[in-house]
Amino acid sequence: PKTECKKIPREVCSSSNCLFEPGEEICHEESQTQIQNIPEEECDLEPEENCRDESVLVPKLIPKNNCVKVPKEICVNTKSNPQIVKRPIIKDWCYKPDDLKKQSEKL
């Protein structure tokens, strides 16, 4: 508890023919009850959005050949007992006879 001493003035009424003389100091202990308001804290949880930039380390991807042997069917036509056959080649020539004459004159 907090203790302190202070002088409290007192008014004394008397007739004018009385004189005041200082006497012995009289002390006595006195306890006073004081009421204090003690604050109470009341709390509630409220969500709060907290945003910030984050950088995440990402591994560098390097392309790499991934070879897998897959069976593939390959077919080849083979000729048994081949023979050479002569066939005539026919070419169609389309021209104007006048063009031939002009060519021959130039030579």
What is the count of β-strands?
Answer: 0
Give the termini separation: 141 Å
Mean pLDDT: 76
State the secondary-structure class.
little secondary structure
- Major sheet summary line: none
Globally, the shape reads rod-shaped
Per DSSP, what share of the residues sits in E-state strands of 2 or more residues? under 5%
Q: Portion of residues in helices?
A: under 10%
Summary tags:
0% strand, rod-shaped, 107 residues, little secondary structure
Compact description:
9% of the residues lie in helices and 0% in strands. It is mostly loops and 107 residues long.
Would you give an account of this structure?
The protein is mostly loops and 107 residues long. 9% of the residues lie in helices and 0% in strands. It is built from one helix and no strands. The radius of gyration is 64 Å and the shape is rod-shaped. The N and C termini lie far apart (141 Å). The model has no long low-confidence stretch (mean pLDDT 76).
